[in-house]
C-alpha cells in the first residue's frame, strides 16, 4: 500500500507542476487560456455584445424598409425574417460555439509563458482596473466606429456614383 501511495503522490505532484514546466515556446494550455478568458470576463463581454449587434442589425433593417407602410402580410414576413436573423446571430455568437475557436486562436498565438504573464497582469490591480473599464471602453469604441462607418459608407457611395458616371461616359 505504501508504494502505491508514493506513486500516487508523485504522479499528483507531477501533474500539479506540469504547467509550470512548460517551455517558453510551448503553446498555451487550455487551462491557462480559460483562466485568462474567465478573469477578463470574455464570455460576459460577448453576451453583452450580442444584443448590441442585434440592435444595429434592426436599425439597418429599418433603414432599408423606407417610408412606405407595410401590409399586414409584409409585416408578418418582416417579423419572421427578423426572428430568424436574431436566432442566427444568437447561435453564431453563442459562447459554446466560440470558445473552441478562442482556445485555438490563443493557442496558436501565445506561448504558455506569455499567457501566464497575461494572467498575472489581469490578476494585478491595474489588470483588474482594465477588466472593470473594458465594457465602457468597448462602448465608446463602438460609438466612435459607428460614426466612422457612416462616413465610410457615404464616401463609398460617392465613389460608386462617380464610377457609374465614368463608366457610362467611357
UniProtKB/TrEMBL annotation:
It holds the Pfam family DUF2059. Residues 97-147 form the DUF2059 domain. It comes from the Bacteria. InterPro entries: DUF2059. Keywords: Signal. The keyword Signal applies. Residues 1-22 form the signal peptide. This is DUF2059 domain-containing protein.
Amino acid at each position: 500500500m505504501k508504494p502505491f501511495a508514493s506513486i500516487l503522490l508523485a504522479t499528483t505532484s507531477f501533474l500539479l507542476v506540469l504547467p509550470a514546466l512548460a517551455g517558453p515556446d510551448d503553446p498555451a494550455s487550455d487551462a491557462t487560456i480559460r483562466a485568462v478568458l474567465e478573469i477578463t470576463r470574455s464570455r460576459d463581454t460577448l453576451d453583452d455584445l450580442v444584443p448590441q449587434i442585434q440592435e444595429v442589425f434592426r436599425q439597418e433593417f429599418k433603414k432599408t424598409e423606407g417610408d412606405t407602410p407595410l401590409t399586414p402580410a409584409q409585416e408578418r414576413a418582416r417579423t419572421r425574417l427578423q426572428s430568424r436573423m436574431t436566432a442566427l446571430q444568437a447561435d453564431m455568437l453563442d459562447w459554446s460555439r466560440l470558445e473552441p475557436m478562442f482556445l485555438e486562436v490563443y493557442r496558436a498565438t501565445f506561448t504558455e509563458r506569455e499567457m501566464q504573464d497575461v494572467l498575472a497582469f489581469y490578476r494585478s490591480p491595474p489588470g483588474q482596473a482594465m477588466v472593470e473599464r473594458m465594457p465602457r471602453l468597448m462602448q465608446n469604441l463602438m460609438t466612435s466606429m459607428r460614426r466612422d462607418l457612416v462616413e465610410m459608407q457615404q464616401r463609398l457611395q460617392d465613389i460608386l456614383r462617380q464610377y457609374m458616371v465614368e463608366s457610362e461616359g467611357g
